[in-house]
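Thread: quick sanity check before group meeting

JM: Hey all, I'm pulling together slides for Thursday and realized we never actually wrote out the predicted structure for the chain we discussed last week. Dropping the sequence here so it's in one place. If anyone has concerns about the input, flag it before I start.
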Amino acid sequence: MPPPAIECRCAGEDREMGLAQGRALRTKILGIRQSLRELEAFRVQQPKWLPYPLFLSLSEWKAERALTAALRRFAPAMLDRLEGIAAGAGASLRTICLMNVMEAFLGSCEGKTVPAPLGGCSALAIRRSRSANGEPIVAKNFDYLPLVQPFFMLRESRPRSGWRSLDFTVAPQGGTVDGVNEQGLCITLNYAYLTDAAHPAPLITMVIAEALARCSTVAEAVEHITQRPRWGAGILMLADAAGDLASLELSNSKAAVRRPAQGEDWLTFTNVCRCPETCAVQVPKTAVYSDQVPRPLRGQPVLQWHIKRAGRIEELVRLRGTLGSDEVAAVMADHGPRGLPDGASPCVHTDYWRTTAALQWFPARRSVRAWYGTACTAKYVELAL
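JM (edit): ok, ran it. Output follows.
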């Protein structure tokens, strides 16, 4: 893959921003639709009697019906953006809706023994006494399906009536997976395994994009996000230029905030909730994957890799004093106590998913160091607003 770069600059009203994204990323957007045929997490939902072209069309129709109704009610500006992406890419709105709701559909636990997840993720934030130069740093390993890696992108968003932001996301998405805005607010997203019932609403990535456009601080972002209807489950790392840090655990109906422990200037998590409100709807620690998920995961524990990975990151941070960006990178590139990477090591290597992007966000600088690949091979490129 080519090194990370800002691949599109989207400015103006929401439809204008969508048009710019669709035009700039047309090849990637159309390519990801073709790749769905190879996405086992999607194909396991296909009835054996239904031909794939009909299954794809039916899935697109269901996605459009659910998402457009929800966005008309709760986030009409985001619907304008998706319509712009579709028009700019020369794709149907149904196709764009399916590619946006994929995270909510595939990550849902509703009606299943366990979810069919898109991936893992690890996040680490430091500030003040734990940061070599005092500035806050947020590191994120995006553990995802290698099939989707070619469709990652960085986008500069310039909404007419909001703050500018630098966003990491996937080509067809109107929302944001990770980003930092011109006020120095940074938000990153990890997936979570929660079981409360889902109802169509704006996706978490869409709510993150809203917060980056409207909020300046962690406190403002937490208030905005927790008050918004949302679809999906995740754990957000939030940091701002002043050094405030928070972990925000989200399900379809619940939200809970965790701050650094007293006297500590760091925070980390993977894909496991720690707050009582969200732990109440998390899959049990004894849960294993069912036959409704891709073959490499069947029969495997759902949470154990993520629990062990969080413990390893905590161990490495506690062993160190202050950390600069290189030391943070070394923590996120770690291959476990035996030097053998797997799903429990900060740098993930498994037969199903792996670390497909490594990112370091700098709220005070309004910049990101990015690499599309495993953290252990990272040759970071720094980009700024």
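AS: nice. The chain has a mean pLDDT of 93. The first strand starts at residue 6 and ends at 12.
JM: adding both to the slides.
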